[in-house]
Specification:
Elements (H helix, E strand, L loop, with lengths): L18 H12 L1 H6 L8 H9 L11 H9 L5 H23 L4 H14 L2 H5 L7 H14 L6 H16 L2 H18 L2 H26 L9 H11 L1 H9 L18 H6 L17 H4 L1 H14 L1 H16 L17 H8 L2 H9 L7 H9 L2 H18 L2 H23 L5 H5 L4 H10 L11
Helix pairs in contact: 1-5, 1-6, 3-4, 3-18, 4-5, 5-8, 8-9, 8-10, 8-11, 8-22, 9-11, 10-11, 10-22, 12-13, 12-16, 13-16, 17-22, 21-22, 21-24, 22-24
């Protein structure tokens, strides 16, 4: 494959007439599940991001970037402001991606693309959910634009895309792995130092943001102060860490030696069940912040497991990554499971009463959303199946940037499966959040190429 174009893009870009309206209209199309629900969608983990600025408290188990983003647009008035910012950002990134892949974009083409993505893919369901999940795809597009389509951005746009990329990567630790994989792709395709450095800038700066935020919030300049507990949960559920615990106990003196006969157990049960070894000791006493207290021991057990059973760990991770690839459907983010004790509590404590009333009136909080949403989700799987050969056709027929976009989508989807399935646990949510990149890339790779975007000076 020929290298992506490099070099410094032109300075100054004036928007075309209708550009802003097209981007806003595209944002409305992508937000339609929130209108169907009657309120922005939330997930059990949304509580941590809201609590970050409402309580306030530094989340022990989440990256720190997404919470301030939500607050910047809700100001404890309404979460519709945060949703509006999220879908507007996404619509703008799709606008730039069209230009980057095809060489140009028009308002009509943008609305057609947003309508297709909104009707046929998982994208709107994550765009309308106040979680950083949709940013896994945004991080991918940012690295693609900076690494492979920089000449089709103005200088101001390139800086803005870089800032968006830093935010998207810093919003979730798995996005670091996704972005790094796409950067590696750019290096292979581009073979130019400048393009590689531009592609790597967003994840590199995101690492600095994470180190600084964790130093300020947890007193340690690390990427994830408590990430070891999640990897331990996965490794014991798969078996290798449980075998290491049984083999090395009681001589190792680990706290988990007392629970060797109960392991392995499901990773979610290990982490979150009130009766798990993490939450309750061998005498049945509750352990406050047991996950955090167990982190040093988790690090020691992980190191011992990697030393004793490296191939078993690799086999388990590969199997989980493959299992994750087979779970691409929306669904597990739609029910009202645990919302009364999580997101609703933050809306109740941090927002006006009318906001809580609107939250409670939504289909999701009333437990009706999965049934109402079901007919709209049916096209997703057939579209994904059709997108595979179409994306491969795009690799054969598309231009350089179009082919690069297809490859970036494929690499990001694979890296996402490895980062989430292998290091956490396979869930539909993890794959559905990024799988929309495949039909997006297929559509843009097969779309007619255009001349230079007239909006660039």
């Amino acid at each position: 494959m020929a290298p992506c174009p490099g070099g410094v893009g032109p300075g100054g870009a004036e928007p075309l007439p209708g550009t802003a309206l097209a981007i806003l209209a595209g944002a409305l199309l992508l937000a339609w599940p929130a209108f169907l629900n009657g309120y922005p969608l939330v997930f059990i983990d949304t509580v941590s991001y809201l609590a970050q600025t409402i309580v306030p408290e530094m989340p022990w188990d989440k990256a720190p970037a997404y919470g301030p983003f939500l607050h910047a647009f809700h100001w404890r008035m309404t979460l519709w402001g945060s949703l509006a910012a999220q879908v507007a950002l996404l619509s703008w990134m799709l606008w730039l991606t069209q230009r980057g892949a095809r060489g140009g974009v028009t308002p009509a083409a943008h609305l057609l693309l947003c309508a297709a993505m909104a009707a046929l893919t998982s994208l709107p369901w994550f765009a309308a959910t106040l979680m950083p999940d949709v940013l896994s795809g945004v991080a991918t597009l940012a690295v693609f634009l900076l690494g492979c389509a920089r000449p089709r951005l103005s200088r101001i746009e390139a800086v803005a895309v870089l800032l968006v990329g830093v935010f998207a990567v810093a919003a979730h630790l798995s996005h670091l792995i996704i972005a790094a994989a796409v950067v590696a792709l750019v290096v292979v395709l581009e073979r130019r130092v400048g393009s590689a450095l531009r592609a790597a800038a967003a994840p590199a700066l995101a690492i600095l943001v994470l180190l600084g935020a964790n130093l300020a919030g947890h007193g340690r300049a690390v990427l994830s102060p408590n990430g070891a507990i999640f990897l331990l949960a996965r490794l014991q559920a798969d078996g290798p860490a449980a075998a290491t615990i049984r083999e090395r106990c009681p001589n190792a003196g680990w706290y988990l030696c007392a629970f060797a006969d109960r392991l392995p157990m499901d990773s979610d049960e290990f982490l979150w069940d009130p009766a798990s070894p993490v939450s309750r000791d061998a005498d049945g006493h509750p352990r406050f912040m047991g996950s955090v207290a167990l982190v040093p021991e988790a690090q020691a057990i992980i190191a011992a497991t990697l030393a004793d059973r490296p191939f078993a760990v690799l086999r388990a991770m590969a199997g989980n990554a493959l299992a994750q690839l087979a779970l691409p459907q929306v669904g597990d983010t739609l029910p009202d499971t645990h919302l009364a004790l999580s997101a609703r509590r933050m809306v109740r404590d941090g927002f006006p009463p009318r906001e809580l009333a609107a939250f409670d009136a939504g289909l999701q909080m009333r437990g009706l959303l999965p049934e109402v949403a079901a007919p709209f989700l049916r096209p997703h799987l057939p579209v994904l199946i059709a997108a595979v050969p179409l994306a491969l056709l795009g690799l054969a027929r598309g231009g350089r940037e179009q082919r690069a976009l297809v490859l970036a989508a494929l690499v990001a989807i694979g890296a996402n499966a490895a980062a989430t399935g292998a290091l956490s646990k396979p869930h539909h949510r993890y794959e559905a959040r990024i799988i929309w990149l495949l039909p997006l890339a297929a559509m843009l790779a097969l779309a007619p190429r255009r001349g230079r975007d007239p909006g660039l000076a």
